[in-house]
Amino acid sequence: MSSRSVETPTHCPYCGLQCAMTLTRDDDAIAPAQTVQVGGRSFPTNQGGLCQKGWTSAELLRIPDRLLTPLVRVAGTLQPTDWETALDVVADGVRRARESGGADAVAVFGGGALTNEKAYTLGKFARVALGTANIDYNGRFCMSSAAAASIKSFGVDRGLPFPVSDLTTAHAILLFGANIAETMPPLVRHVAAAADRGGLIVVDPRRTPTAERALAGGGIHLQPSVGTDLPLALGMLRVALVEGYLDRAYIDTRTTGFDAARVAAGEWWPERTERVTGVPIDRIRRAVAIVADARQRDRGAYILSGRGAEQHATGTDTVSAIIALALALGLPGRERSGYGTITGQGNGQGGRELGQKADQLPGYRAIVDPAARRHVAAVWGVDPDLLPGPGKSAYELLDALGAADGPRVLLVHGSNLVVSAPRSQRIVDRLAALDLLVVSDFVLSETAAVADVVLPVLQWAEEDGTTTSLEGRVLRRRRAVAPPVGPRSDLEVLAALAIRLGQPANRFATEPRAVFDEIGRASAGGAADYSGIDYDRLDREQAVHWPCPDAGHPGTPRMFLDGFSTPDGRARFVGPRHRGAAETVDATFPLVATTGRIQAHYQSGSQTRRVDELRSSAGEMFVQVHPDTAQRAGLANGDLARVVGRRGVTVGVVRCDESMRPDTVFLPFHFPGAARANLVTSTALDPTSRMPEFKSCVVRLEAATTC
Ligand SMILES: Nc1nc2c(c(=O)[nH]1)N[C@H]1C(S)=C(S)[C@@H](COP(=O)(O)OP(=O)(O)OC[C@H]3O[C@@H](n4cnc5c(=O)[nH]c(N)nc54)[C@H](O)[C@@H]3O)O[C@H]1N2
Ligand SMILES: Nc1nc2c(c(=O)[nH]1)N[C@H]1C(S)=C(S)[C@@H](COP(=O)(O)OP(=O)(O)OC[C@H]3O[C@@H](n4cnc5c(=O)[nH]c(N)nc54)[C@H](O)[C@@H]3O)O[C@H]1N2
Ligand code: SF4
Ligand SMILES: [Mo]
């Protein structure tokens, strides 16, 4: 490395663990990114470790097909143009839609990849510059069920209400539907000690690398049928009740509503739980005993959930059942124990509390709360009565695009809907029905490719910003390289559009630091209070956990120790009922398809499919299936299969795996075109969170005749 090398401490562009890294370039001017090296950096979440995606992340800064100029569709094809022209086309389209259909005719879709500054500005832009209620974001597809259940029980949702490093000393960790060995590899070191003691319990219909890790240490893999976490959790709660593991003192002093949970659990006697979930009852008993014992001896006991348990039309109730189990054992709101959800996206946490969700204003405030509206409107310098009310949830918004009374214009910042939204073909059709689709991205994602206007933006290491990790830790992403000539920051794009739409020139700040200071004011007094945090403090202290209500406040690594965020300070039990999946197998569709992730690809793959090392290690789209199930469909390992569902068909290479349940197939959702898993997924929505049922739909397998 040359003596003139410059090191910038920052964080990974991908997932919610927000691993710390150092980017090193070998000259002292902020130069284009040809020579950037990635190194792991010591930090509580990753302790210097990174996964394959993090190690290769600098490749994103030199991808050959980086978008450099705005594109506008002319006679059916996207043509390069200048910024003024592109922004004028957008502003004209917005004005036309508003004149004919009113403010709600323009919609906005955001994402958990956006920094806090961008997520906040996007929400403000929608409510103030567009005046539309119709803004939602991809977090609705992510942890919204866990958020809804956490708010019901704890009064607030911070994914993990404790630092991930607290897991390191635990003796028992019960993981519902999270495959952290692939989705957050450096997190595995935090659960390693528990695993080595036989205390890691993994609930997953597949024997994932995470389940293997549990088994290797003498722990447990519970392999239920897809969509049965709710009866499993209630069955565990009943075991805890009958076998005397309840923490009665905690239930009496720190919770309310136990009777509802007790009644709900009463229906899940062991034989019934075993019949519905497929999990042997002795294994369930052993799992409960391990967690209860660790808690009773104060040796650290945690229950965590991920998308496997949550992305169902019953996701909120399922998490309520999991939380009921945690509360009955006395875990939440104490040192060395707790419940949390593993937030997925880089800024999945910050993205959900700063106002890009249909029903929320910054600071995790409800948009229907008059006091919240007054507070935020004062910060924005507008009349509170002019702020719109709650808009449609993500899938409902997408489903309404182009309809007679639906939005005619959509602006997308930070999502690749064509690949990642459920029932892909429907989404593609709705996008095509719009008068104007505008996508801001730094690559021509599958969604950008069908847009009318594409605006090229900056990416992580080319600009400053903050993100909030899965444990509410607010941290700095720093500019480490000069951006290429051409792209602009999302903040500049939104400010330029706002001015064209008649907003005062100074209403939308474009400097990340200034936006963050405004976030402090807008979030002050809210559940997610950032007002005691600023860039200088983050530079000094590396990171601060919210809530942090003033500059002298130390931040809140561990929430709920003195009480929950409910009006009476007690956690609330909910007594959920099992409803089952929206679709059930029959003779035509005899298998359940579930979907998820592999280590080498991130989300819709629009970034990781452009990194050679990741693309080659991921290989192509596959269908993971038990060999007997494949054989019944006339398929063998390596054959190309058609996965036929009620809404469409996807294709992938058969990957036989003896450990799969014979009734289940697994599809990764990272691949585009005809290999999109979302061509078959269901749009059944959770009634509370409006989460689509990504994790369960019925399918059959057929041999694909290629040629
Ligand atoms: N490599 C990689 N890492 C990522 C991401 C990525 O795309 N790629 N994305 C990030 C994001 S945004 C997120 S949200 C997280 C998600 O992180 P995870 O929740 O760990 O990821 P998934 O693979 O979606 O689902 C986890 C597991 O759920 C299982 N599962 C399926 N159905 C069920 C069920 O009914 N019950 C139970 N108990 N389990 C079930 C699947 O077999 C899968 O192994 O990962 C983050 N990290
Ligand atoms: N079948 C199935 N589908 C799923 C899931 C599943 O488990 N199964 N999981 C769901 C979940 S949990 C999630 S989180 C979603 C994620 O799916 P998507 O919302 O599609 O997320 P990404 O693929 O990360 O897309 C982000 C896009 O924004 C761009 N981008 C990144 N940073 C910025 C920025 O700062 N500004 C702008 N303007 N653009 C940026 C990236 O290049 C990329 O094209 O997928 C959901 N879909
Ligand atoms: S675990 Fe997540 S944050 Fe850490 S290096 Fe991998 S993708 Fe990046
Ligand atoms: Mo996610």
Structure characterization notes:
- The chain is of the alpha/beta class.
- The chain has 4 domains: 6-62, ADC-like domains (N-terminal domain of TfIIb); 71-141 and 347-545, Rossmann fold (3-Layer(aba) Sandwich); 144-342, Dimethylsulfoxide Reductase, domain 2; 591-703, Barwin-like endoglucanases (Beta Barrel), CATH 2.40.40.
- Helix content is 31%, strand content 18%.
- Strands 5-4-18-17-16-6-7 form a 7-stranded mixed beta sheet, with helices on one face. Strands 24-26-25-28-23-27 form a 6-stranded mixed beta sheet. A 5-stranded parallel beta sheet has the order 10-9-8-12-13.
- Helix 3 links the parallel strand 6 (106-110) and strand 7 (135-137).
- The longest helix is centred in the first third of the chain and has 19 residues, at 83-101.
- The mean pLDDT is 97.
- The structure holds ligand MGD (2 copies), iron/sulfur cluster (SF4) and molybdenum atom (MO).
- Iron/sulfur cluster binds next to helix 1.
- It comes from Antrihabitans spumae.
- Keywords: 4Fe-4S, Iron, Iron-sulfur, Metal-binding.
